[in-house]
Amino acid sequence: RNRLIVDTDGGVDDAQALVMLIGNGWVPAAITTVFGNVSLQSATDNILAILATLKASVPVYRGADRPLIGDAIDAKYVHGDDGLGGAPRPERQDEPQAMHAVDFLRTELAQATRTEPVDLLMIGPLTNLALALRLDPDCAKGIGTLYIMGGTVKGRGNVTPAAEFNFYADPESASIVLSAGIATVLVPWESCTEHMMTGTELDDAFAGLPTIGAPGFSLALSQHLRRNAQSRGRGDVMLFVDPLASAVMLDPSMIETATDAAIEIELSAGPARGMSIIDPAGRIRASNVRIVESVDNRKLAELFRRSIAYAP
Ligand code: BDR
Ligand code: CA
Fold first, then answer.
1. Strand partners of residue 263
2. pTM of the predicted model as reported, rounded to 2 decimal places
3. For ligand 1, atom 9: residue with the closest CA
4. Is the dihedral of CA 158, 258, 265, 7 positive or negative?
5. What spacing in Å lies between the alpha carbon of 45 and ligand 2's midpoint?
């Protein structure tokens, strides 16, 4: 596997995505943070707290605190004011690096074009990568595979009727990234709403695990998402959102059905802004995005069970 950089907006499912990676033995080479679920500052604090809980030392670089156009939105109504649903935090945590995330991405990816490609896992708004691509378009060649959680393929948005949160938070950046010709694996919102664990399965998965430390942290995250799902009438379940993208990156063999397509992002102001329009026939542009539709639930649950049992 290539070295991995994770770009994240520090919410509850972002935390699960990092637990999924590190708990399965895959520590990112670096993490870049971005505004989104919560402010850039809170997202960065959350990532540092997660790494301290997992006892993983990973350099963290702060990135954009707002989209290219317009003001930053947030999703505190989903993730809580602190972005982690009130999950327990460790006493101590490290500090972020001094270098800006966009400078880090640009230099790291430019160097990768001369050595070996780096994989990216994007689980927040795409502002940092869009800015790096504008600063140095050639750095796209340093990317092996770009994994993105974002977008909708059947027009059922979550933040608006038309758009998914990560793309809606910065549609221009999504458009820049998705038209850069990078080999991309996209996990859209609809796929996330099809992959879940029931409350009973979660109780079984956590049975016998410590209620403190990393397992206790994961339990708090899961309980928060379970409450979210119930409050939205989905029943007693936990959806896999950002950790579904982690799982697909960890084990691409779990992908059962996927479609290659071209994607266009609606940029006009109004009800469709941020909508991702999928063109399987490639009429809009060459199709270079592999859209994941379904994965093997057994393999997904196995990665989840192993990750929550991780207690460094
Ligand atoms: C995406 O939006 C955020 O709230 C989640 O962390 C996820 O990355 C889902 O639309
Ligand atoms: Ca996220």
1. 278
2. 0.98
3. 165
4. positive
5. 14
